[in-house]
Amino acid sequence: MISRIEGRVWKFRDSIDTDVIIPGRYLRAMHLDELAAHVMEAEDPKFAENVNQGDVIVAGWNFGCGSSREQAPVALKHAGISAIVAKSFARIFYRNAINVGLPVVVADVEAHKGDILCIDLERGIIKNKTTSKNFKIEPFKKFMLEILQDGGLVKHYQKTV
């Protein structure tokens, strides 16, 4: 169920822009595997080979700033990221992430690389299982959970028509 996510933390700084998430030179990639192979390489050259399905990104302010490229959240999701928690998001990145079915959560949480986070989108709670600290978040509305559960906005629309 998409409303409850548990994953290992990857920690990133403030102002991670879409060119850092997926550099422009890879935007012509024809396959998602190729795109995902280069995700976050400017910040951590080993990220793509070490990220696991279900992992979570925790970042600072303004995650996803820069261009409006939809490939940024697509590449992260395809690489295995199950959610991104950040102090704030660039608005277009936030919307693009939801549109492709990648949960994005605005929150200031204490977490370090390798910690395990449990995110309950429906109840509005993030638990750092490594430190046993809990953090309150705004619970996701039912329609947002449905979009995420269906795998994104297009799939949700196709399901409802």
CATH superfamily placement: Aconitase, domain 4
Q: Specify the oligomeric state.
A: single chain
- Which strand order spans the largest sheet, edge to edge or round the barrel? 4-3-2-1-5-6-7
Based on the structure given, which CATH architecture is correct? Alpha-Beta Barrel
CATH topology: Aconitase, domain 4
Largest sheet: 7 strands, mixed
Radius of gyration: 15 Å
State mean pLDDT (0 to 100 scale): 95
* Low-pLDDT residue spans: none
Termini distance? 23 Å
Large-scale geometry: globular
Helix content: 25-40%
Beta content comes to 15-25%
CATH class category label? Alpha Beta
H/E topology pattern: EHHHEHEHEEEEHH
Structural account:
The chain is of the alpha/beta class and 161 residues long. It has one domain: Aconitase, domain 4. Helix content is 29%, strand content 20%. The chain is built from seven helices and seven strands. A seven-stranded mixed beta sheet has the order 4-3-2-1-5-6-7. Strand 6 and strand 7 form a beta hairpin. Helix 6 packs across helix 7. It is globular and about 40 Å long. It starts with a strand and ends with a helix.
Question: How would you briefly describe this protein structure?
Answer:
The chain has 161 residues and is of the alpha/beta class. Helices cover 29% and strands 20% of the residues.
